[in-house]
Amino acid sequence: STSFDQYTLRAVPECDALVALSGAALLTGQKVQRRGGKFICDRGSTHHRYQDDVIAEEHLRWGLPRPEESDGTIEREEQIYAVADAITVPSSFSARTYSQYGVPASKLHVIPYGVRLERFKRNADAPTDSFEVLFAGQVGLRKGIPYLLEAFSRLKHPNKRLTIAGSIQDHIRPLLAQWPQENVTFLGSVPQAELIDRMSRSHVMVLPSIEEGLALVQAQAMACECPVIATYATGAEDLFTDQVEGFIVAERDVAALTERMQQVADDPALRNRMAAAALVRVQSIGGWDTYGKHWDAMLHELTGIARRADEEQ
Q1: 0.70 cut: is pTM over it?
Q2: Going along the chain, which residue ranges are E strands?
Q3: Spatial distance between the Cα atoms of 17 and 299, rounded to a whole number of angstroms
Q4: In this predicted model, what pLDDT tens digit does every residue of 55-114 receive, in sequence order?
Q5: Cβ-proximal residues to 298 (8 Å cutoff; 6+ apart), any chain
């Protein structure tokens, strides 16, 4: 990112605002600021130091070596946070991690991701003779896979199945055998059309992440009328209300994951209410057009440039 920063430093034109992905454009952003423009850091996850600490802790918990960071990466990130006029993040959970490390709340802007509502739609019914649980995402420690496998093993149902859709990360492969896998199917990566079908046919999607910005698959599942059980670390609270469209639990809480899955398994009427509520909620949030409008409003406010009359419509 430093070499790219050197390139953009030479190439950046006069502008009112520069939006740069996290880790990039420290020098370029300062150049824009000296010219009177604003520098926005767009970060899709938690504070980098928080992320590093949580993932390192999880690796040590399971006997894996701590992931190596490039020299100075975290310090450079923190320099950008300090210099930037604004930091955009996709969830309230993510924003709280910045406040925890001293970033002023006034600098943080929460803009949740959208979902392609025209593409993600329920296309089938969940079966009545089994209980189908879905996980969608990379299979790794960051996504809380150990806690999901343990919680699912405790779930009491005569015909239960957990389907895990997503690529398996190398670091977790040697560990998978130590966790329960009865009635568990690993699909690997699946095309979007199959993911929509899986979401439609599942009774619940469970996402037990220990750290991320905002898991987009949650809104996609909701659009397919599949309720979600997720941790706060997934950004779930910006997408749905606990016990209304789904359940939100603490990270690493196997007992809570089991209890909430059991509730959905034991109460089909509850599942149906949550499925209907999830669709209504995700439709009210809007798609990527809404995401773009939030960005547009934030940029106009930050730069102090008034919107044209045709933009107001």
Answers
A1: yes
A2: 17-21, 38-42, 86-89, 108-110, 131-136, 160-165, 184-188, 204-207, 228-231, 246-249
A3: 8
A4: 999 999 999 888 776 678 899 999 999 999 999 999 999 999 999 999 999 999 999 988
A5: 86, 88, 109, 111
